[in-house]
Amino acid sequence: MTPQANPRGSPGADPLATRLPVTVITGFLGSGKTTLLRRLLRHPGMNRAAVIINEFGEAGIDHELVEASSEQMTLLGSGCLCCTLRTDLQETLRDLFVKRRSGEVIDFDRVFVETSGLADPVPVLHTLRGDGLLGAQYRVEGVVTLVDAVNGEGQLDAMLEAAKQAAVADRLVITKTDIADSEGVTRLRRRLEALNPFALCTTAVDGELDPSLLANIAPSTLGAKWDDLDRWLDPVTSGKFAQRLGDAARYSSGRGVHDAAIRSFCLWFYEPFTWEVLNAALQALAQLRGPDLLRVKGIVHVVGERGPVVLQGAQHLFHPPVTLEGGHEIDPRSRIVFIVRDIARESIEALFAAVGALAATRAQ
């Protein structure tokens, strides 16, 4: 689905402000997702969180470890959340919202979805963004991916799922640093920053993580400040970001077979889009290379809109765009971040240029 119209709705409405944030916590087997979630839920600021846990196997036990930490916890049956259980996830989210409204469960203010270690998080994002009813009640806050400092490099080398989990993350959390050698941790961090330079990378010891790192990952209101939008696309300062892009090139020769095929880059556009050009470019890209578009997110300027437009998508599905209120010190340039598999930056640049040129010719 591509953006087809301004989705603001009625004047003065702020649909983002009333939607409950959903954070997807993923990571390969043994990365420490349950430990982190259990400790996170004990924090006073997280005592109203609802939790949905997916386990792969005949008997789930992770939910028993977390259950005491959350008043509202739901276990999805055996199976992989990225395939057979997507319908279950939709039904669970709808059921939770209905029970919240009727007072049957706590008045939760956020939802954590813990995937199985084998899950591809992109179809999970599809579930959350492709269901119109869910979209009126929930918004995707972001993807948090845990990577084991002891086994992470080997998993990135051997398992495509591990590389994709890291590539689509908004937050990368390196775990088990207390039992890994420091050189290995440094090497893993550099590799992750080369694989996904657009994610904030931090560490957690024994599951301890500052909850503020998981808050406000994505714009939450129409009145979001430009600094908030800037951090959403690039959660580090521009100087450090430039350094990390240099690290990406420096360490690319040492990357594994899976993450070597994954690229992250940002395209800048100096002229505002028309809805026609933006829709056509995104639709063509999704049709031609949808399966290889792991994540797309951007802040673009569109002719006639009062402020910048926030874009989010994964593979062939794009979330309806949201136009934010204009403000001071808004960067006049548009920028779109792409995390892709086996797609050259130049080919996407050429596609946008061709669509723009075609639209200009038609307008003459």
Would you mind describing this structure in some detail?
The longest helix is centred in the last third of the chain and has 19 residues, at 345-363. Helix 7 (152-158) crosses helix 8 (160-167) and helix 9 (182-195) crosses helix 11. The strands form 2 sheets. A 7-stranded parallel β-sheet has the order 3-2-4-1-5-6-7, sandwiched between helices. It is built from 13 helices and 13 strands. The chain folds into 2 domains: 15-214, P-loop containing nucleotide triphosphate hydrolases (Rossmann fold, 3-Layer(aba) Sandwich), CATH 3.40.50; 226-363, Hypothetical Protein Yjia, Chain: A,domain 2. Strand 9 (293-300) and strand 10 form a beta hairpin. The model is unreliable at 5-11, 56-71, 76-85, 237-246 and 248-253 (pLDDT under 50). It is globular and about 65 Å long. With 364 residues, the chain is an alpha/beta fold.
Task: Please name the defining characteristics of this protein.
seven-stranded parallel beta sheet; Hypothetical Protein Yjia, Chain: A,domain 2; 22% strand; alpha/beta; 13 strands; single chain; 2 domains; 364 residues
